[in-house]
Amino acid sequence: MFEAFVGTWKLNESKNFDEYMKTLGVNVAIRKMGNIVKPDLIISVDKHGVVCMKSQSTFKTTEIKFKLGEQFDETTADDRHTKTVMTLENGKLIQKQTWDGKETLNIGQWSLT
């Protein structure tokens, strides 16, 4: 099911990303970079169903590995330590992060490069 997402994806646009980063407490300099950078997202799946998502840009590269629907520990690009669950709903990748009593929900739509 997730195999349709395997490949290299290019970010076309981010909606309300600056407000999202501001809400998280990301400083102004990093927010400016975050609004300019358009990372590639490289997705692969191994034979055990573990998904690897690598976000790669000139600014920073991050990588997470997970199984759909299973909670895992994530260190985010802004160095938050979260409990994260990735799910697939209606063809969209949903990322739910919780930390310090807070929660974010990210809905990803990427176009194949």
Written description of the protein model:
By secondary structure, this protein is α+β, with helices and mostly antiparallel strands. The chain has a single domain, classed as Lipocalin (Beta Barrel). 15% of the residues lie in helices and 46% in strands. It has helices at 17-24, 28-36, and strands at residues 7-10, 40-45, 51-56, 61-66, 72-75, 81-89, 92-99, 102-108, 111-112. The strands form two sheets. A five-stranded antiparallel β-sheet has the order 4-3-2-1-9, with no helix packed on it. Strand 7 and strand 8 (102-108) form a beta hairpin. Helix 1 runs antiparallel to helix 2 (28-36). The longest helix is centred in the first third of the chain and has 9 residues, at 28-36. It is globular and about 40 Å long. The model has no long low-confidence stretch (mean pLDDT 86). InterPro entries: Calycin, Fatty_acid-bd, ILBP, Lipocln_cytosolic_FA-bd_dom. Residues 7-24 form the Cytosolic fatty-acid binding proteins domain. GO terms for molecular function: retinal binding; retinol binding.
CATH architecture: Beta Barrel
Q: What fraction of the residues are assigned to beta strands by DSSP? A: over 45%
Quote the CATH topology. Lipocalin
Helix-strand string: EHHEEEEEEEE
Q: What is the C-alpha radius of gyration, as a whole number of Å?
A: 14 Å
Secondary-structure-derived class? alpha+beta
Mean pLDDT: 86
Low-confidence stretches: none
CATH class annotation: Mainly Beta
Largest sheet: 5 strands, antiparallel
Number of strand elements = 9
Shape label: globular
InterPro entries: Calycin (IPR012674), Fatty_acid-bd (IPR000463), ILBP (IPR031259), Lipocln_cytosolic_FA-bd_dom (IPR000566)
Protein name: Cellular retinoic acid-binding protein 1
Domain Cytosolic fatty-acid binding proteins: 7-24
Keywords: Retinol-binding, Transport, Vitamin A
